[in-house]
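Lay summary. Proteins are chains of building blocks that fold into shapes, and those shapes determine what they do. In this project we predict the shape from the chain. Here is one chain we studied, written as its sequence of building blocks.
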Amino acid sequence: MIRALAFFLILVLVGLFALLNWDAFSALTTLNLGLTTLQAPLGLIMLGLVAFLCVLFTVWVISLQASSLMDARRQTRELQAQRDLADRAEASRFTELRTELMVRLDRLQSESRLAIEQNANSVAAHVGQLEDRLERARLLRPTSALESADHAREP
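And here is the predicted shape, written in a compact code that computers can read:
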């Protein structure tokens, strides 16, 4: 922005200089073109060249900015495409991880059930052994009706 203002200020100063010295700019002078000579106002020709170069420079700057804007848009689209690709890959990875986690959880659940059943069976077996020992030692009353009748008859 500052450069554009400086450029515009220089153009205004050149125009003001040409306006203040218009008589000198429009005075006819003999100009040598190499092959021929002609009478023309040198100041106006130089002012025209300055104006032409300013227009040429402005067109060049506009085309440069337009191409940089197009490049920036292209890069933005490419970055967005890469971001979308990365998001899809990440979502796919999360899906795979969730699936793997569910498989592991199912396996752990079945292993836990098996371990609980085995522990329950083991505890039941130990309790059964203890009952047998106590019955043998006659410290525990028999649990069946026949056994209780047998124990009732004994003196």
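What the prediction tells us: The two ends are 120 Å apart (CA to CA).
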